[in-house]
Structures are given as C-alpha cells and as structure tokens.
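Our preliminary data section would be incomplete without showing what the modeling component actually yields. Below, a chain of 146 amino acids is followed by its predicted structure, encoded as tokens that our downstream tools consume directly.
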Amino acid sequence: MRRSIIMTLMLTILLFSVTVLAVLYSSRYIINKGNIKTIGINVYWDAECTNKMTEINWGMLDPGWIGNVTGYLKNEGTYPVVLSVHTENWNPVGASSYISISWDYNNQTIEPNQIVPVVFTLSVSETIQGIESFSFDIVIIATSVS
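Predicted structure:
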C-alpha cells in the first residue's frame, strides 16, 4: 500500500514536471513573418534572380535570438540607384520595441542590371514580453543617382 502511494506520488510529480516544461518550452517561441515591399528595385532568394523574395519567415524565435537571411538585390531599372530601408505596419505595434531588423548594405551605388547580395539580420530582445506572434513590412526604396 505504502509503495503504491509513493509510486503514485512520483508519477504525479513527473507528470507535473513534464507539463510545466511543455508550457515553458512552447511559450518561448515567437511566430513571425516579414513582408518585403520594394520600390525601384527587386529582391530575390537566389543569385540568378529567378525566385523573387516577397516575405521572410524567420522560423520559430526565442528571446535573444539573432538570425540572418541573404537576399539578392537587382537594379532592373535604367539608372544607377542607392537604397534605403525601413519597416512599417508592425502587428502588434509594440513588437517593434523588442524586435529590430538591419542589413549589411553599405550605401554603394547599384548600376543597372547589377546584383548585390545583402544580409538581412533580425534581432529579438532578451526582454521581449507579451509577443507570441508578429508581422511587419520591410520596405526597400531605390533612389536614382545622377
């Protein structure tokens, strides 16, 4: 009798521990999506510029996560351009306080038909709270240079 009580107690503790770990593990991940919008330039997944990049799914993220995705920017216009980037349409709005995006483009002029690889980096703050999923737009703008 005493042995069965101890076994029941141990099983209860084990199940409770597994449940707590499952809740902690699943609540750490953040679901996301970044839409790509371009003005005067195109972004591709491949260096041959055959597969247009319209969104980045960064995968399941943890607090403190940093990830990189390479895109290939192609100036398909007739004038040399320089680029700028910004984000907009954050959902939820507060996500932008904990999540940032950057790129390694260094303001070089991109000639017509030139392809430039660029690494986009997404960083999630270690202190992120209350965000279980998010989305936003990455806007890349090409400006002609004379």
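The first strand starts at residue 31 and ends at 39. The chain has one helix and eight strands. Preliminary results of this kind motivate Aim 1 of the renewal.
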